[in-house]
Amino acid sequence: MSLNQVGFESTLQQMVQILKVVVFSAFLAACGQSPLAVEAPDQAEKSDSAGQDSSKVSGSVGVGPTGASTTIDGPNGSTNSSAISAPVIGAANSNNKVAIPDFGAYIGMNSGDEANGVTLAGRENLLGHKMAIERVFYPNRNWTLDRININQIVNSYVNGRIPMVSYKVGAWKNITSGRSDAIIDKLAGLIKDSGIPMLLTFHHEPEDDACSNNTPNCGEGQTAQDYVDMWRYIHNRFAALQVDNVSWNWIIMGWQWGPGGNDTVRNHIESMFPGVDYVDWMSADLYNMAGNCSLTAREINSRWRELGVEGQGWYDWASQFSKPLALAEWGTFDDKLVDGRKAQWLRNASETLKSWTNIKAITYFDRDHLGCDWRIDTGGNIELDGYRDLINDPYFIKGE
Predict the structure, then answer these.
(1) Is the Cβ–Cβ distance between 228 and 274 less than 8 Å?
(2) Would the pLDDT of 60 be above 90?
(3) Domain with 181 in it: what CATH number?
(4) Which residues of 109-145 are buried (b: 16+ CB within 10 A; e: fewer)?
(5) How far apart are CA 107 and CA 30, in angstroms?
(6) How far is CA 330 from CA 109, 138, 234, 286, 353, in A?
(7) What domain range is 13 assigned to?
């Protein structure tokens, strides 16, 4: 069952939303900000980088600060939702938030190697499915009054995908000091006027840029409390401006809860949690890291880790907060010594994800990034078939 078949009221809401986005896109074009002039994410910069009510919807995870949940038909007495209609994915609920699936998880991707002709649309053609959700990055260089924009967000939405958005914001103390108020207000206005339901993050993977005992690069002397203060400041400013189409999505690296984790660093990350009143979704970036990106083929072979091994600790910890969870980034290497091992890793990951029923969205990181090649088609069709099996599973909610 598609979300646009839920009922006449939902369909009418979608039609109104489509018209709103079209009008807003025309407004952007008139202002010289073409919604289709998408800036590619700066992957190098990527790496350097309210309250929860008690309601549940048919056993689903409750939504966050401002409102009612929206049901996507589940397995008991109804049809599983394995496809949703473009361009309004997620059939935003009465408060214009991204709907939380009652059953299954949105499937999506961040993909692109424009120099070699690789695009997300091309990946969708290759796989025979539209993605339901798209990971969108805005690097630090965009955090200026003249460069702040939502072009990628609009592009994602009009192409039928839920935007899962990350903005890097520079020094966190510049936020709480008020120096970035004009930027925050401009961005809040653009997002509010667009009406696009989205998952929104400010500074994903903050543990890489905050000082702790085990952090070699701590940015500008930023602390965990500086991060929490920054997040809450922006959240409260958006709330004061009545931006109601944002679900606040906290994104960290989940591997510190795995076999290679460190108690000190893990405690440091936990101290960066902004609080249940300021977070709607909780997300992790989880990879078959095999140590790091510079290992030999033999080292990768010997240090191989399944998603369930790497992520179970984070999943158990995050589930205690009763929030919808997501994998904002995830992926695996090839094992050059064992044909088909990557494909089997992906098939095993599919089963793990279906057992992690609090996971409501997954976005694969389909890039060759700083020597880590996570692309779905490395190794040829024998490996690609593993991802094909995953996306073909009706548990994972796709676009049409």
Answers:
(1) yes
(2) no
(3) 3.20.20.80
(4) bbbbeeeeebebeebbeebebbbbbbbbbbbbebbee
(5) 33
(6) 9, 19, 27, 5, 12
(7) 3-399
Name the domain count of the chain. 1
- DSSP letter string over 81-139? --EE-SSSTT---TTSPPPPPSSSEEEEEEE-BGGGTB-HHHHHHHHTSB-SEEEEEE-
State pLDDT tens for residues 283-305.
999 999 755 677 888 888 888 99
Amino acid letter, residue 157: Y
In terms of Cβ atoms closer than 10 Å to its own Cβ (0-12, 13-18, 19+), residue 183 is buried
From CA 346, how far away is CA 287, in angstroms rounded?
11
Question: Between vectors from CA 64 to CA 58 and to CA 68, what angle results, nearest 5°?
Answer: 50
Residue 348 sits at φ, ψ, to 5 deg, of: -65, -40
- Paired tokens of 246: 């944002």
Q: What are the pLDDT digits (tens) for 339-391?
A: 999 999 999 999 999 999 999 999 999 998 777 889 999 889 999 999 999 99
| HSE-up of residue 112 (Cα within 13 Å, Cβ side) | 12
By DSSP bridging, strand 368-369 and strand 372-373 are antiparallel
